[in-house]
């Protein structure tokens, strides 16, 4: 007899279905006492994990919709968010623990069962949830949404997980290992290739390789939501009245205490937006960069070459409007171009235009036409793993080499499209050497009409602190010391890379 989730059902002498976990721990509660309903907050977390696993969805896009659908209050919404995001961040460590508690490869488990187990493990090992509540509620969730048979398996597995603390499990999993990368991969829940790449990036950008632990820990910390008030349009007064705090790094920014940001009218109107401080800093650095081109038409022309979904484009457009400039926001895909238009809706229409097209064609179609160009190049997103925890499990090392040609072609196009005396900002949300320094090196090689500006100094100039320590002063190659790299563990921002290139 087979179960609805695959595999052969096994029953004991009393006719009860047996689980396949190692160990025979059953719940001690009588059937009438067992939770049979799904707690709404845990159900939201489970639905987010299922969407990520089954549909390749992004947790940050799914979560708000599920919270609204289940009408969670602020407290339950916070619990659901921490549960889902925590389970996704800790997936590598948790799966290693689960592999010790199930007598078959995890790949043979129904994905729905595995997601329920991950939710249970996170509650047991990393949240202040009493063990009995974590077990009872997770089993109840499984019984409600998966079935009674799988719930018995989940109960037995989670009881074994609860026998040790997270620290004890990690010590057991790493016992006898001597490879620092393997150890960090298990204890900090990152794929080995990412641990290795980030450690190499630290050194290349002038940091100490020993910072890798702090960097990985920062990836696993829940990020604070950052807001930006569009210059000349938005105000943070409403946010401050609601308990938000001023951002310490950049003007017109705020840190959110959590909850539904849609309750703020300024957010609904689009004059205040959610945007990581790292993105705010690189956009402002480009807008403030000194130009040496002579003005002939009285109006600066700006370009955001990869504008979707529109966050940096909206900030740049607001800055352009303040400075009497105009910006073209280019986006290759129609649906993302519509998102850019929505992001720009609050900004005077005469300050911007959205173009749907390939950025690689702009340099050929509009040579030497723009004073400032942002190339926010498609990348692996290794700098935003704290906000997009599922990305670390989706990305592969091969993605780096596959994205390389596109990044180079976009930057080459921008260098063709920028006027003499104008500035191109090459930006990635990744510190990986192949996506940052190597791309800039290739763009500069053999050219005498380009110069690197001091990106670290440019970031300092637009920051409230005046000293971010984002420049790559200790980088092995002198040319690399002119670029800048933000870090989650140092700046509490995404790991944004910035190179400012002026055409002579």
Automatic annotation (TrEMBL):
| Region feature Disordered, mapped onto this chain | 1-37
InterPro entries, per the entry: MeTrfase_RsmB-F_NOP2_cat (IPR049560), MeTrfase_RsmB-F_NOP2_dom (IPR001678), NusB-like_sf (IPR035926), NusB_RsmB_TIM44 (IPR006027), RCMT (IPR023267), RsmB/NOL1/NOP2-like_CS (IPR018314), SAM-dependent_MTases_sf (IPR029063)
Q: Which Gene3D superfamilies match?
A: NusB-like, Vaccinia Virus protein VP39
Q: Which residues cross the membrane?
A: none
Task: Output compositional bias ranges, type Basic and acidic residues.
Answer: 1-20
Q: Which UniProt keywords apply?
A: Methyltransferase, RNA-binding, S-adenosyl-L-methionine, Transferase
Q: Which Pfam families match?
A: Methyltr_RsmB-F, NusB
Q: Which GO terms describe its biological process?
A: methylation
Would you say which domain of life the source belongs to?
Answer: Bacteria
Query: Which terms in the Gene Ontology molecular function aspect does this entry carry?
Result: methyltransferase activity
Q: Which SUPFAM superfamilies match?
A: NusB-like, S-adenosyl-L-methionine-dependent methyltransferases
**Where's the SAM-dependent MTase RsmB/NOP-type domain?**
198-504
Q: Any idea which positions bind S-adenosyl-L-methionine?
A: 306-312, 331, 358, 376
Q: Which CDD domains match?
A: AdoMet_MTases (cd02440)
Q: Any idea which residues are catalytic in this one? A: 429 (nucleophile)
Q: Which family does it belong to?
A: Belongs to the class I-like SAM-binding methyltransferase superfamily. RsmB/NOP family.
Mind telling me what this protein is named? Answer: rRNA small subunit methyltransferase B
Can you name the source organism? Arthrobacter silviterrae
Q: What is this organism's lineage?
A: Bacteria, Bacillati, Actinomycetota, Actinomycetes, Micrococcales
């Amino acid at each position: 007899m087979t179960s609805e989730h695959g595999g052969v059902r096994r029953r004991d002498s009393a006719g009860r279905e047996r689980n396949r976990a190692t160990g025979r721990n059953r719940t001690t509660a009588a059937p009438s006492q067992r939770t049979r309903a799904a707690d709404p907050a845990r159900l939201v977390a489970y639905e987010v994990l299922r969407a990520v696993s089954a549909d390749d969805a992004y947790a940050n896009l799914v979560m708000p919709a599920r919270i609204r659908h289940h009408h969670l209050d602020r407290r339950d919404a916070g619990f659901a968010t921490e549960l889902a995001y925590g389970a996704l961040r800790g997936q590598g460590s948790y799966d290693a623990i689960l592999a010790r508690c199930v007598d078959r490869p995890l790949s043979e488990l129904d994905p729905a069962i595995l997601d329920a187990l991950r939710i249970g493990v996170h509650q047991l090992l990393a949240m202040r949830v009493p063990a009995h509540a974590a077990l009872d509620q997770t089993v109840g969730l499984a019984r409600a949404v998966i079935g009674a048979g799988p719930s018995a398996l989940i109960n037995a597995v989670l009881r074994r997980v609860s026998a040790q603390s997270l620290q004890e499990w990690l010590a057991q999993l790493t016992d006898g290992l001597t490879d620092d990368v393997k150890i960090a991969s298990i204890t900090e829940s990152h794929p080995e290739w990412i641990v290795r790449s980030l450690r190499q990036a630290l050194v290349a950008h002038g940091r100490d390789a020993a910072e890798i632990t702090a960097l990985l820990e920062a990836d696993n910390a829940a990020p604070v939501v950052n807001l930006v008030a569009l210059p000349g349009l938005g105000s943070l007064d409403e946010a401050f009245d609601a308990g938000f705090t001023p951002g310490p790094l950049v003007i017109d920014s705020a840190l959110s205490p959590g909850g539904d940001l849609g309750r703020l009218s300024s957010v609904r109107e689009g004059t205040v937006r959610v945007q990581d401080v790292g993105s705010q800093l690189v956009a402002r650095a480009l807008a403030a960069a000194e130009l040496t081109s002579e003005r002939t038409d009285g109006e600066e022309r700006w370009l955001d070459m990869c504008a979707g979904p529109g966050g940096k484009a909206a900030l740049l457009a607001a800055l352009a409007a303040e400075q009497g400039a105009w910006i073209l926001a280019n986006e290759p895909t129609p649906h993302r171009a519509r998102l850019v238009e929505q992001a720009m809706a609050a900004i005077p229409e005469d300050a911007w235009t959205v173009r749907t097209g390939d950025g690689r064609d702009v340099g050929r179609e509009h040579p030497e036409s723009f004073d400032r160009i942002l190339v926010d190049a498609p990348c692996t997103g290794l700098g935003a793993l704290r906000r997009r925890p599922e990305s670390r499990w989706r990305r592969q090392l091969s993605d780096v080499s596959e994205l390389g040609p596109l990044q180079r072609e976009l930057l080459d196009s921008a260098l063709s499209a920028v006027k003499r005396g104008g500035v191109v900002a090459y930006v990635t949300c990744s510190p990986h050497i192949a996506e940052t320094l190597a791309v800039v090196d290739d763009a500069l090689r053999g050219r005498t009409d380009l110069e690197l500006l001091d990106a670290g100094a440019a970031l300092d100039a637009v920051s409230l602190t005046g000293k971010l320590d984002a420049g790559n002063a200790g980088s092995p190659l002198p040319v690399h010391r002119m670029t800048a790299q933000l870090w989650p563990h140092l700046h509490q921002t995404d790991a944004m890379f910035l190179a400012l290139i002026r055409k002579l």
